[in-house]
Amino acid sequence: MNTVTRSATSKVSTKLTLGEVLRMLVNDGRIDKAHAEKLYKDRKKDSSNLHPIVVIAEQKWKDLKTPNKVFSVEQLSHFIAQQAKVDFYHIDPLKLDFSSAAQVMSKAYAERLKIMPITIKGDVATIATADPFHTEWIADLERVLNLKIKLVMANPLEINRYLPEIYNLATSINQANIAKAGQIVGVQNFEQLIELGKDKNLDANEQHVVNIVDWLLKYAFEQRASDIHLEPRRGIGTMRFRIDGVLHQVYQLPSNIMNAITSRIKLLGRMDMVEKRRPQDGRIKTLSADGVEIELRLSTMPTAFGEKLVMRIFTPDVIVQDFIQLGFSKKQADLWAQWTKAPNGIILVTGPTGSGKTTTLYSTLKQIATPEVNVSTVEDPIEMIEPAFNQMQVTQNIGLGFAEGIRTLMRQDPDIIMVGEIRDMETADMAIQAALTGHLVLSTLHTNDAPSAVTRLLD
Questions:
Q1: pTM over 0.85
Q2: How far apart are CA 375 and CA 388, in angstroms?
Q3: In this structure, are 106 and 71 located in the same domain?
């Protein structure tokens, strides 16, 4: 291969090429020289803009030092970091400071050099790159920023993915902030503008808020979040996602922008945007980037600093999962299937909020809801609309609670009854009566474990 020769400790700034990466891999005994030369020859006239390590990863070559591993972009990124003697940085979007990062350099500058600002701590700015040998820009940027630059190697695919998002979101927030600052009137008038724009094209200022909401939902779906929290604080608002049971802070916004975002989401959820003194519930149905229908259940509550909004994310696909996909072992799945085929009795699913009780019950009902049985539910609220079930919504203000709902369902010739939650003695008594009179009853209890359910029922 005809390549530029460079030692690992060289300070010469040269852009990384396919030939150079192949040379380093051959010299380190990681790939076969003949394979490297063939690839170099085949791609020599290739005008595509693919990063060299992406091209190599596409070959699915095995690492000669660890033959059971196939080279991936991530593994090759680690290798280049070692060769350049810089740290490798895995880009975690939940840990990025979007607003600070976007202020370090312009989007055009970052895209031209394929670099990505990560953090600013003290007098050090951490910049991710997919070409740690190309460093001629560092001195200029240090002089302009009056900061020291710490260079880290990152996966080029991650840089390509998250670099536009940093700047697009920051731009939308800044423009929305400017628009809000230019208004003497308050948040209420901004809400009225959005209300007036429901049947018209939104103007530029409102569109920035729409962009932020669109990004927020798209980002939450990508991160497989179960809940989105929009929380007002003194002078600022915080976005947090719950992922695998843990809340992660995603972004902080000026409070006026957070108010506008909350109003936009309330509008989509057909909630009263003007009412901020009492809790409200709403629903949004939307599509993910890959076309999957997703339902969001909205809940607001007044706090000392404003209106807090939580969105619970429901993906209808979860109810068609089998028990193994839900995390059951083979033995547990067989036992669960045996229990749910019983003609009568009561099955209680326990666990804290967000542990999967509803998903387990819906998946179970979906599998046993055949044309030969009548499956009826009483819920507060109806978590997911399922045509195979007869679903009843609890409405306390007209006297329709869980106990009354069970009493009604027992006159509807049900085979299987699902009660959203056993909250009180009357509901527990009615559920047990239904089980004793020839019905299979499934319900949930908010306890941390199964043994606690017995104590809860006795109480």
A1: no
A2: 8
A3: no
